[in-house]
Amino acid sequence: MRKYIDADVLMDKLRGNVLVDVTPALEDAIAEMPAADVEPVRKWIPCSERLPKDNSPVLIAYCDKDDRSDIDIAISQWSELYFGGNPTGRMWWLPPFDYFTSNYDVIAWQPLPEPPKMDGGSE
Fold this sequence. Notes:
By secondary structure, the protein is mostly beta strands. Helices cover about 15% and strands about 35% of the residues.
């Protein structure tokens, strides 16, 4: 079975290993390796661990505060909250629903997948 290896993670691990001499030639060889023809496994990132970059569209998982088993998925953005056209200094999720009057918590997120590549307007 083939595995997807993230070159940046590999280099970080090698640099942290005192038994490996990370030479420029090794760095170049790893950087020049062809990309695997597989998608990395996408995992949900709990909001309690970290939040996405500002204004980056992401997939979110949200649930009703009173029924945490009822989880839905939407696309949203972590963005600065504006009031009257002025930044408030607070961050929030741009709502796929009426966040101010709803009873929902965003519990996790993940980057959006790449859009499909189209060839001349046909699939």
